[in-house]
Amino acid sequence: CLATLIIMLVGDTYTLINYVSFINYLCYGVTIIGLIALRWKKPKIFRPIKVNLLIPITYLAFWAFLLIFSLYSEPIVCGVGLIIILTGVPVFFLGVYWRNKPKCVNRLIESMTCWGQKLCFVVYPQCGSAEEE
To answer: Could you list the residue ranges that cross the membrane (predicted)?
Structure first.
C-alpha cells in the first residue's frame, strides 16, 4: 500500500494502471493454479461450484501467453510490479509467520487492523474486549 501511494504521487496514472494490471493478472493465474492443484490433491472436498478442468487449463494457457508477452514487451513495468508484490513479504513474516510475538507487537497489529477496518468500513470493528460493549 505504501509503495503504491509513493508511485501514485511520483508517477502518472497510466503507469500505475500498468503495474496494477500486471499484479492482478499474476494473482489470477496463481489462483487458477491453486484451483487445479486442489482438484488433484483434494478431489473429495466440497465445492459449491465445480467446473470442467478444461476451462481453467484453457484460461492458464491464455494467461501464460499474456504474462510472457507482458514480460517481453514491458519488462520494467513487470519488474516494478513484482517489487510491489514483494513488499508484502515482510508484512507476511511480521503478521502471519512469526507466531511468538511480544504483546506490544500483537497490540500494534490489532490496533492497526481495527483502524483500517474503521477507515475503510470493511468489517464491523471488533476492537477491544467484550466488556467494553
So the answer is: 16-39, 51-73, 79-98
